[in-house]
Each structure stands twice: as C-alpha cells, then as structure tokens.
User: Fold Diguanylate cyclase (GGDEF)-like protein from Actinoplanes palleronii.
Amino acid sequence: YAAKAAGSQLMIYTAELDESADAAAQLGADLRHSLDDGDFRVVYQPIVELTTTRFEAVEALVRWHHPVRGFVSPVDFIPVAEDNGLIVELGEFVMRTSCHKFAGWRRDLGAAAPSYISVNVSARQLREPEFPDVVAAILAECGLEPAALLVEVTETALFGGGTAVHAVETLHRTGVRIALDDFGTGHSSLGLLRTVPVDVLKVDKSFVDEIIAGGGRAVIVDALIHVSKGLGLRAVAEGVETAEQAAYLRELGYEYAQGYFFGKPVPEPDFTPRALVVDQA
Ligand code: C2E
Ligand code: MG
Ligand code: MG
Ligand code: MG
Assistant:
C-alpha cells in the first residue's frame, strides 16, 4: 500500500511538472510569435529626486500584450524568455526602443530632460559575448554618451562571478553606469559591492514596505543608506507608494526614489518626461 501511495504521489507530482513545463513551452512559443508580430511595448516610470521631486531619470519596463491572454506580467514571462534565450532579442528591443526614446526627449527638452535612462538586463544577456558591443552600437546610433545609460542587474545575475561580471566590468569601463536592482534580496549583497563596479543601489521595495504610517524604525532602509553613502554610491528607494514613505526616506538621507506615489510606469504617449509636481506633504 505504501509503495502504491508513493507511486500515485509520484504520478501526481510528474503530472504537475509536465503541466507547468507545457505551459512554459507554450508561453515560450508565444513569445517567439509576439517578437515577430511586435506585441511588446516599453513603458516608462519616473525616478525622482526626493528633495525637489525633480524628474531625475526614467526606468524602462517591458510590457507584453499577448494576443489571447492580454496582459502577462514580466514576472511570469521574463524567466521563460531567459530559459529559452529569447531574452537576448527581447532585451535588445527594450534597450534600442528606450535609448531612442530617451534621445528624443533630450532633443525636445534639452536641460529639462531626465539625466539618464535605466534599463533592466538579465544574466542571460550579460553572458552573450557581443553584449557590450551591442550596447555601444545602440548608444552610437542614438547619439548618446555612455553615461546616459544605467544598466540594472540583480545581485543573483552576478553571483558566482564569471562572464556576467566580466560584461559588467567592460560596460563600466566604457562609461555605462551599473545599478544593483532589488538590492538586498539576492545573493552575496555586500561582497559584490567590493568586487563589481557599481554606481547605484536600488533598495528593494520589500524594505521600503517596512515604512508604515505611525510604525517603528524601518531598519534595513536605514542601514542601506549608510552603506550607500559610505561607499560613495547613489541609493534609489524602489516601490514608494505613500507620502509617509517618501518623507521618511528623505529624513533618512535618501535623495532618489521611485514608485507609484510619484508615478506608475506608463506608455510613451502618456509619459511626460519633464519635471516634477508631486505633493509630498
Ligand atoms: P524591477 O526592475 O525591480 O522593476 C520594478 C517593478 O516594480 C516594476 O514591475 C514596476 O512596475 C513595479 N513598481 C514600481 N513602483 C511600484 C510601486 O510603488 N508599487 C508596486 N507594487 N510596484 C511598483 P514590472 O514592470 O512588473 O516588472 C517586474 C520585474 O520584471 C522588474 O523588476 C524586472 O526585474 C523585470 N523586468 C521588467 N522589464 C524588464 C526588461 O525589459 N528586461 C528584463 N531583463 N527584466 C525586466
Ligand atoms: Mg529594475
Ligand atoms: Mg527593482
Ligand atoms: Mg523589483
């Protein structure tokens, strides 16, 4: 009986595995079609300077309008695109689209334009030997200097060193700036800061979430601003949703933040890449 029970459990387990493997394979095939059909868009979210609420920078985030399922979250499809390698093509699309858009804002707005564009890059892209050259070519075709681009990578993407770290070093040498995204949630956070050239720490939303109205000290955001300042890095607090959080972060010494409180990611036609006007009272 025990053997039979174990057997049926095993069957259920593999059936579930098959199902999720099928679903991922289907999603992967859909990604391929959607890349050919142009179903991907880039949306833009402001990064603001807390003291002035000036529009400091813009993060580019990809959106997929699936022909049947409609909105599918990047949280669900980015891992699939990483597994089947399509992230290389998709990532290049996001990089090219957002750099061109940013160059256009600069032309239109001059000094009032945000100072850099922030683009997420996955480990799979960093491991492509051509990646630094592709980035350089995109910057050249847009007429942007390397410092106009900030590449966001996760700690986990750089964990264990190797090619991904090499690519980051190469990019950084050319003048492209590097951010550690979701900082504090991945592997080996603090050690990485010594071995990888990093300019910006994006302090993960989960730590900002600890700042609740009337609550006690939010220990990690407090610690991370000291780490950032001590190492001469810029800190950007992610996922700021309330005026209380913005005010608290400013009190702790944070200069930059991003979140629904300041602006949600929106498609280009709705996005006005010029300054401010957020009531932080
Ligand atoms: P991320 O790079 O950490 O981006 C921040 C995510 O938090 C975005 O979700 C953004 O819409 C969301 N967000 C921003 N402010 C708030 C807030 O105040 N509250 C809440 N609840 N959420 C907020 P999104 O666009 O769904 O992207 C999720 C993740 O998918 C990104 O996290 C990034 O890791 C990945 N991703 C998105 N676009 C790309 C891309 O073009 N390439 C790569 N490789 N990854 C991407
Ligand atoms: Mg990011
Ligand atoms: Mg993040
Ligand atoms: Mg995140």
Q: What stands out?
A: The chain has a mean pLDDT of 89.
